[in-house]
Design brief:
The chain is α/β, with parallel strands linked by helices. The protein has helices at residues 26-39, 53-60, 87-93, 108-115, 119-135, 147-153, 155-167, 184-196, 215-225, 246-255, 259-262, 269-273, 275-285, 307-315, 342-351, 361-375, 384-395, 454-462, 470-473, 517-535, and strands spanning 4-5, 7-10, 43-45, 69-75, 99-105, 139-145, 172-177, 204-208, 229-232, 263-264, 403-415, 421-433, 436-443, 477-487, 493-501, 507-514. The protein has two domains: 4-267, TIM Barrel (Alpha-Beta Barrel), CATH 3.20.20; 403-535, Alpha-isopropylmalate synthase LeuA, regulatory domain (Double Stranded RNA Binding Domain, 2-Layer Sandwich). It starts with a strand and ends in an 8-residue tail after the last helix. This is Citramalate synthase.
């Protein structure tokens, strides 16, 4: 049986930029567009030409896409002007993109109250705008704003807006759940009604927002009803609560039934395997820490903690995982914790390249050590790199690369020459490498001269000069820092977890525990460097 084509439309560069705190640079936009093209997305919406200087410059230097159709976004012409003489529409047209998506009103209340025009005038504006684009040889699309609310208030008028666009030559008409308040059953019912009105599913799209945590479910409901274009953003970025998350939708559509056997998209198996990397790259561009619990691509998406569960899972992963993690570029994790059993432990050691026979006394020693450490405040559930170091040490397989002699951190708060109160942090680390004493000093100042704290100063000093080991850690960076007080009162213990990353895209976590936050941080920093040196095969001390 031949499969129906389902088209994927990404709005990250416009909708995603409406996320609070997000502002893409020109370079960011180019990087994201090329990533989407490589992934296999059919349509990449670049933004609204003229809306801001960055968007204008982006369209002037449009990315060279190999597979995806690049398009501009705008709005239908204003009532009282012809499509050819509307300067706002002209700005969109002048971007010279092969396709254009125009948003227009489909809710009668918005037409008469927000626009202040007659209902038929709005219908004429939709038709004239689409006809103008088609006459210029562009692929035209119409986004029906607040369609579901409009349909529930006045179905005849909402449908009339769609038919006007379609009859004027639109390739797609898109149903927009603009305020994110519609639920899946309603989306399915209304989408079916739209198709029954004479609009074919292969010309119908869906655009949902996530205000009720139903954006992905609503999109699937529309697909179930017959819509054949889906719009969304990477990692669900978007205004308020975000948009439909393409990172969740794509693998669901490719791997789950009935979609996998009846529909096809432009995303290949190779593209699907790059999904985790794409999601994390998006977070990296935004300087955000990836959500560990994100479906399909999160670091915890395929983590199996309980000993009995993990033991059975290792015998037949398919019974405990809904998809193979490697299919989406992710990996299975067997975390170590005080709930762990020897099956978990041997699997985790195997993943680290450590082969330990079943029944080896070292297994019991490592488990006892993990439980004792967690009683003292450590956690190896998330700090997998620290667990590996602990196990290597117990097995006698942890190389010694250098020896820490001492460190010192100074935080100074004073007035500068302008009379402003400033804080400066300085760290000194003294260590020995191959018998040679190395002293590193570093301040924690960003390029703008602002202090970034004592832990940052310590991190810089520790990684500043490791002599022959330096090339192995040159691409390493600290990407997240989490602090927790594990018990209160005068005997409070501080736990620090640090996430690190390198140019190969590896991300690892280490933990440190101490009554002193700086000392706990130093332990976690030291572990991060040691793990990197071990994994990259750095020479041990004296070699």
């Amino acid at each position: 049986m031949s499969k129906e084509r389902l088209y994927l439309f990404d709005t990250t560069l416009r909708d995603g930029q409406q996320t609070q705190g997000v502002q893409f640079s020109l370079e960011d936009k180019h990087e994201i567009a090329l990533m989407l093209d490589e992934l296999g997305i059919d349509y990449v919406e670049g933004g609204w030409p003229g809306a801001n200087p960055t968007d204008s410059e982006f369209f002037e230097s449009a990315p060279k896409l190999k597979n995806a159709t690049f398009l501009a976004f705008g709005m239908t012409k204003r009532v009282g002007r012809s499509a050819a003489n509307d300067e706002v529409l002209a700005g969109v047209v002048n971007a010279e993109t092969p396709a254009v998506c125009l948003v227009g009103k489909s809710y009668d209340f918005h037409v008469t109250k927000a626009l202040g025009v007659e209902l038929e005038e709005n219908i004429a504006a939709i038709a004239d705008s689409i006809s103008h684009l088609v006459g210029l040889g562009r692929e035209a699309m119409f986004d029906a704003e607040h369609f579901f609310d409009g349909y529930k208030a006045n179905p005849e008028y909402a449908l009339a807006s769609l038919h006007a666009a379609l009859e004027a030559g639109a390739r797609w008409v898109v149903l927009c759940d603009t305020n994110g308040g519609t639920l899946p059953a309603e989306v399915h019912e209304i989408t079916k009604a739209v198709i029954a009105s004479g609009i074919p599913g292969d010309k119908l799209g869906i655009h949902t927002h996530n205000d009720t945590e139903n954006a992905v479910a609503n999109t699937l409901a529309a697909v179930d009803a017959g819509a054949r274009q889906v719009q969304g953003t990477l990692n669900g970025l978007g205004e308020r609560c975000g948009n439909a998350n393409l990172i969740s939708l794509i693998p669901t559509l490719l791997l789950k039934e009935p979609y996998a056997s009846t529909l096809e998209t432009g995303v290949s198996r190779e593209g699907l395997a790059s999904l985790t990397r794409a999601s994390r790259m998006m977070d990296d561009i935004l300087n955000r820490v990836p959500l560990r619990s994100a479906p399909y691509v999160g670091a915890s998406a395929f983590a199996h903690k309980a000993g009995l569960h993990a033991s059975a899972m290792l015998k037949d992963p398919s019974t405990y995982e809904h998809v193979d993690p490697s299919v989406v570029g992710n990996e299975r994790i067997i975390p170590m914790s005080n709930q762990a059993g020897q099956s978990n432990l041997r699997k985790r050691l195997s993943d680290a390249g450590l082969k330990v026979d079943k029944g080896d006394p070292a297994l019991a020693r490592i488990l006892d050590l993990v439980k004792a450490q967690e009683s003292a405040g450590y956690t190896y559930d998330t700090a997998q790199a620290s667990f590996e170091l602990l196990a290597r040490r117990e097995l006698g397989l942890l190389p010694q690369f250098f020896t820490i002699d001492r460190y010192r951190v100074i935080v100074e708060r004073r007035k500068n020459r302008l009379g402003e109160t400033i804080t400066l942090s300085e760290a000194v680390v003294v260590l020995f490498i191959n018998g040679e004493k190395v002293l590193s000093v570093s301040e924690s100042l960003d390029p703008g001269g602002s202090d970034r704290g004592p832990v940052n100063a310590l991190s810089r000093a520790l990684a500043k000069d490791l002599g022959p080991l330096q090339p192995y850690i040159a691409d390493m960076k600290l990407v997240d820092f989490k602090v927790r007080i594990t018990n209160g009162g005068t005997e409070a213990v501080t736990r620090v977890i640090i996430d690190s990353e390198d140019s190969a895209g590896r991300r690892w976590s280490t933990v440190g525990v101490s009554p002193n936050i700086v000392d706990a941080s130093f332990e976690a920093l030291l572990g991060a460097i040691q793990w990197k040196l071990v994994r990259d095969g750095a020479p041990a001390k004296g070699k």
